[in-house]
Fold this protein.
Amino acid sequence: MAKRIGVALVATMGLWLIVQEIGAQYGWPPKYALLADLAALAAFFWTLVATYRLWRLGQTNRP
């Protein structure tokens, strides 16, 4: 689970940066940048929730 969270974080940031750069080079309308931002925020929120759940699972499994 932790590896999946890490991959999701890195992939989200990388894809977000790539989309922002491509959008700037091709002159995409700002609504597409907003769409990419919202998608990245959703992915970051998922990783935050998943990390919290993983941390809580580790807290309950302690002896």
About this structure: The two ends are 21 Å apart (CA to CA).
